[in-house]
Amino acid sequence: MNLNQITVPSKDLKVSVPFYKQLGLKLIVDAPPHYARFELPEGDATFSIHLVDELPQGEGISVYFESDRLDEMVAELKAKGIVFDEAPEDRRWLWREARLRDPDGNKLILFYGGVNRKNPPWRVG
């Protein structure tokens, strides 16, 4: 099995599509006002947003995007005006993460996990 795509909700694709393009995703399906799909700069998975009347309540959705040049990428995005909730920080689970929210409040975590992403010291045998 392979993870193919993640879809997150949006109340306004006219705002969300430019945001994700600014993050570096490439728009490959544009079906306004209901749907948009993107390719990521690396890998085969795709990412999409779809129009909803109401956003999820509570903790909602968290989407992780990995980059081995995390600190550079965050600096570049900040220079473009992207606002982060948390700057890159080393976490106790051995990942380095920066956190932000998309225009609809979906949690985005830009991170670098390296070998620890799939093989942390506490991995189950």
DSSP E strands, number: 8
The rough form would be described as globular
Structural class comes to: alpha/beta
CATH topology: 2,3-Dihydroxybiphenyl 1,2-Dioxygenase, domain 1
Q: Care to describe what's here?
A:
- This protein has helices at residues 13-22, 70-79, and strands spanning 5-10, 26-31, 35-39, 46-51, 62-66, 86-90, 96-101, 107-112.
- The chain is α/β, with parallel strands linked by helices and 125 residues long.
- Strand 2 (26-31) and strand 3 form a beta hairpin.
- The chain has a 4-stranded mixed sheet, covered by helices on one side. It has a 4-stranded mixed sheet with strand order 5-8-7-6, covered by helices on one side.
- The chain is globular, with a radius of gyration of 15 Å.
- InterPro entries: Glyas_Bleomycin-R_OHBP_Dase, Glyas_Fos-R_dOase_dom, VOC_core.
- One of its GO terms (molecular function) is dioxygenase activity.
- Residues 2-113 form the VOC domain.
Concise structural overview:
The protein is built from two helices and eight strands. By secondary structure, it is an alpha/beta fold.
